Each structure stands twice: as C-alpha cells, then as structure tokens.
Amino acid sequence: MTDKRMTLKEAVSKYVFDGCSVNIASICAREPLAVAHEIIRQGRKNMTYITDTTTDPIELLVAAGCFSRIEAAYIWIGVVGQGYNVRRAVEQGVPNHIEMIPYSNYSAGLRMMAGAMGLPFFPTKSLLGSDILKYNPDIKVIDDPYGTGPVALVPAATPDVTFIHVQRADMAGNCQIFGMLGNDDYAAKCSKNVVITCEEIVPTSEIRKIPNMTVIPEYAVSAVVEVPFGCHPLSVTGYYWMDNPFRQEFIKASKSREGVLQWLDEWVYKIDNHEQYLEKVGRERLAKLREMEQDNCMIPEIIARTREGIL
Amino acid sequence: MKYAEKYSASEMMAAVCAKQIRNDDVAFVGVGIPLMAGAVAAATHAPDVILAYEGGGVGSKTRRMPWTISDSPTTDNALVAGSMNGIFSDLQRGFVTVGIIGGAECDKFGNLNTTAIFGRDGDYHHPKVRLPGSGGANDIASSAPRTVIVMRLQKGKFAEKIDFNTSPGHLSGYDSRKKAGLLGGGPVAVVTDRGLFKFDEVTKEMYLAAIYPGQTVEQIKELIDWDLKVSPQLTELEPPTEEQIKIMNELDPLGTVLGSKSMKGAVEPFDDYYQALKKSYSVTKLVL
Predict the structure, then answer these.
(1) How far is A241 from chain B (nearest CA, A)?
(2) Number of domains forming the structure of chain B
C-alpha cells in the first residue's frame, strides 16, 4: 500500500499550477476553505474552475485573483448573503474579469460522470429551451436518434486537479464520506489528479469494517492530507456545524474591495498554515461547533461502535 | 385552528407555498422559503411527504433547519444520503413529483432568471448585476411534473422580457415546452408576498388566482409589467395559522431563513448563535 500522505503546502505546490483547471468539490458542506487559503498563499493565477456548485471557497479565490474562467452552475454564498467578490469580478472586472460558462447542477454533474466513465459527453433532457444553451457554446443539442426529440449533450469534465474533503481516509486514499455525497464519486474519477483532505486519517482496517461507505477508492487518489476543521466556517457532517457568524463577518468585509483585501491579509496571507488559522479562530469556538453537530448527527455513534468491535 | 394575529410577508409566503405540497409528493425543495414551506407541510398536512435535497439527502427528519441544499440537516435521520447526480437522475426519471424554486426575474410564462441582470448598457459577459446562476433550478424546472415558483412581488421583477432564461417556465406559451423537448409539466403556481398566481391551461399565461388579506388587485397590477389577467373567481387566502408560525419560529430561531438578516448585513455574536441553536434543538421535535 502506498503512503500518499503529504502536507497541504506540498500537495498544492505539486498539483496546482498557473493556468490549470481545478475543482474544489462537494457543495457548501465539506468544501475545504483550507485548500483555498493555501492556493491563495501560493499565488496561483489565471486558472479555470470546473465544478457544479461552489460557495465560500470561490469567493476567497476570486477576491485573490486566482481565476479567469468559471464553468459552473451556481457561484454564490448561499442563504447568509451575497457573493460580493464574484459580483465585483464579473460586473466590474475587479481584480480581474472572469469568463462565466453556465451549466445547471445536473448537467455539471453529468460532465463529471462522463469524464469518470471515460466518455466524451453525456446526454440530458435538462437545459432545453433555456438561455444556458445560448451562452454556452460547448453544449450541443441534437435530435435523439432513438426518437424522443431534442436532447442536450454536455462535454466531459477532466480537470487537472480536484480537491475533495472527506470525513476519513486511509493513507492510500480510500475515502469514506458521511452525509450527502454531492457529485464527489464522479468528481474524483474524472480528474487527472485528486488531492484528498480529510478530518482524520484512519487505519485501512477501519475502512474495511464498513466498505459500503467507501466512496472514493485509493486508485483514483494522488495525495492524502489530514486537515481537521479543514472546511471551517462551513460544516462537515458528523464533525462540526456551520460557523455562520464567521461567514457573516466575511460577507460584511466583502462588501468593499478594501474590506476583503484586509480580510485576506488577516486570515490568509499573514497566516502560514491551517494550524495557525485554527488557533486564531479559537479552540473553544471549534469545540462548540463540534458539539452542535454531534448533538444532532447519528453517524459518529455508528463509527464509535465499529471501533469498539460491536458492529 | 387559530389564525395568527401577527405574521410577516415571508411567513405568509411559506404558509401559502406549503399548501402547494401534497402528502404523496416527493418534493425537491431549494433553500430559503421553499425549504421552510417543505418543513411546514411535513409538520402539518403532509406528514408523508418526502423532501429531497440537491446534495443527495432524501427524507431527513431533523430538528435543525437546513441552510443549504447539502448541509447535515439534509441527511439527519434520513432515508437516503445519496449523491447529487443520483437525485437529479431520479428527477429526470420522474420519481420527484414537485419542485419549488425561486427567481430574481419572472416573465408571464413563468420563465425565470437567476443568472444576470444585464442593465441598459450591459450584456451577459458584463452585466449590471451578476446572480448565482441556475444551481439545480434549471433541472427542476425542466423535469419536475409540477414546479412552484416563490418570488417577492417587486416592481421590475415581473417583466415583459427577462434578460436570461435560466429555468424554463412555459417558454412562449401553449405547447412550446413540449416542442423544446422538456419532460416536466412546467410551473403550476407562483407564490408571492401579495398574491398567488396560476397559469392558464391553454395559453399558459400567468394570472392572478388569489390575493392575500389586505391586498388589492390594483396594487398587484401596478407591480407587474404586462397587462395582468385576473381570475373571475378571484379569492382571498387565509392568513397563516398560529401552529404554522410556531413551527417556523422553532425551526428558524435566528431568522436566518425568514428574517432576511443577511440582507441587512448583521453579524450575530458567536455565543448568541451557539445558545440560540442549542435551545432550538431542545424545544424542536424531529419535525421536518
């Protein structure tokens, strides 16, 4: 078994390069902000983001000027507020203009599925009649040769690197995900390289106890990094709940360009690594977020029982 | 059953929207008011409804309000913790029976824009206002047998022509959806903060079907850019019940969903947040 463990700094430096295409997978929950911070610190530019839906990480990355093209269905910060940084880039070209290639969540997922299946495209009955077709020349509409009328074809997604945050993985990259999966099974398998960040690295024997929970197998994975609380202020099922006050602070700062630059300085550039970030957030606060999640989630109980040998 | 004496426009919208959900529905609910409507329906007249979320969660029974279509409450105590492609495939296959979505602009055929407002001198690439994009709304609007639209009635938002058709309604009316190859039935209702709209069976044009207490047809017509048709059987809807309001308050103690806090840019102290949510877990039964 190959030990693929490395630091986040090493993984980002090895797999992310100027002009490459990137996906930071999952949706809102399990989106690793720690990865966004490290990409920003390493100063990568002119990249393409290929995903379905993305929230807080893309706001930071766009504010830092890392991306020039986004192929996605939804780019916003969700119910807590507006995506001010993406708005500023698209509307005013600050800090740089971004080409926006529209998809829907299903068609974006089908792109990953096509890539994961080694196919060039996938058909869908979504998108028909909409302006997504008009503004995305990569989507083709054909007449179904089997007679059901128009059908839209979306091209396979094959990003250079995909980051996926999971609850637990072994050192070779067998990954178990709790809660919703998003499109992470296909997101992993369509990508040229996959960096797994996880809450915990566990022995392979733990993975083998519940193999049904393994979503990503080691052969699809390039690197494994243990990054506890790697998605703060977003949530990770079974591990911690969302830190909405923190997100509200970020949104408030993002209302002006000066505000978000100060935020980046304070929370990204002046911090060397994720450990320092967690110290700055505060251990007591993180413990409370963990408690709020574990009060409600039954999965850790099941895991605890497997460890005691009951299951 | 007692009607609530005091309620907000958002609470009324959630209550009216909840009534669009049937007990035998598999309902795709988006964030915000649609989600609250799903919760209220599940806790009152539709206990057997199966709520499905875009992230892949199906049939959760949680005491926490989901704030996104993919956070932990969407799989707390759930039937399925599946994938996004899986649930959207179920939708395209026909297993999901109703979808509830929002919009920023809506035309008379229920076509929705959530992508960009171009503005006078702008275009798609350089819009006046960039919006989130489709998310799963296009897929829901394309394939759900029934779509319910939830949108506030504001001047300029119900437009003769929208800048970007993100999620197809009845396209240009009549049988244009079918001709385009869409599988779903299109929008059946538009729930606003002043009245409930439906669509003509033949022309597929939106008309005013019912108004809320205290509203007038004239006020509503003024907020709509085209010459709005009004049902000859126009009714006035009942206000939300006390029970419905209680459920909403329990699930949303911070007003995250219904209080429009985000719009005001408020930041709540972390300890208040922690205490309020802890308290809500202790009083809320597993209701969703």
Answers:
(1) 8
(2) 1
